Amino acid sequence: MPIAGLNLVPFISVENMMDLVLETGIDAFLVELAQYIEEDFRRWEHFDKTPRVASHSAEGVIELMPTSDGRLYGFKYVNGHPKNTRSGRQTVTAFGVLADVETGYPLLLSEMTILTALRTAAMSAVAARYLAPKNARTMALIGTGAQSEFQARAFRALLGIESLRLFDVDEPAMRRCRSNLADLGLSITLCTSPEEAVEGVEIITTATADKQNATILTDNMIGAGVHINAVGGDCPGKTELHRDILLRSSIFVEYPPQTRVEGEIQQLDPDHPVVELWRVICGKEAGRDRSDQITLFDSVGFAVEDFSALRYVNEKLKGSRHYTALDLLADPDEPRDLYGMLLRRQAWLRQASLA
């Protein structure tokens, strides 16, 4: 990467990220990102793993999500504040850091609001490749907020979804989603209820934002053989599915200690059986093994996925111009003379004021 000086760290702004994604191509970016996620899930046992550090309030949550594979360290700062849209703000914002374990020096500082939307969608599609009915072509999308188009695009790019049925209590949001996806060749139907949206589909994605226990899907709405991609339930007290659906489903999760607190399975007994997705990807356990099986990916988002996204973007930056060299680290002439660096700056400022 063409950056000189130990003080300089590549910074990817929102504009940089958008340009990097568009230069790559949205579909190509999602496919490549999915490859990095799958690679890291195949070496899951190499990672430090801990539930994210969360600070909850009545209005939302602020979280830190760290992990390391022993060579690289990554973390993400992310919030979730559903009421933000009322003041023109995003529900979810994020930024992240990738660092070199050997020196502790950061290699990259990046926006992760857009990148998180992309990695969440890519993660959903990776899971669905192992869990959804073979050759599935139809999907219902319940909730057409900021994540919806990314989910639709990822499922189209990685699974070949052709038909999309949308439902949201906010009709303008449904129309926006349809308009944004209009040039992809998808057959898109706006529905008047969740029941109408899920009728006859093979995959159901739920991605609502309210910070509460909600019942977006009831048991009688779910037929045999469906794959459910539950994205919206992602913190304590926030769920989307009726408990009876869980009891009928084969449940797959990222990291059980986190999902049991934050995911749909917070509704179940602490020892209710679940399968870690990495074990399916590595061939240690079965994913979908019956045509009538209801599979549920209880997705809450885990730090390894953000690590994968940062690792991917760091590789994409090589030979790229889509970053700013940020003067982030102190770099004195003599590493132990940090105070002397301050004095030299003071002398320079005095001289500059006299010039």
UniProtKB/TrEMBL annotation:
One of its GO terms (molecular function) is ornithine cyclodeaminase activity. The keyword NAD applies. Gene3D superfamilies: NAD(P)-binding Rossmann-like Domain, ornithine cyclodeaminase, domain 1. Pfam families: OCD_Mu_crystall. Keywords: Lyase, NAD. Its EC number is 4.3.1.12. The keyword NAD applies. InterPro entries: NAD(P)-bd_dom_sf (IPR036291), ODC_Mu_crystall (IPR003462), ODC_N (IPR023401). Belongs to the ornithine cyclodeaminase/mu-crystallin family. PANTHER family: KETIMINE REDUCTASE MU-CRYSTALLIN (PTHR13812). This is Ornithine cyclodeaminase.
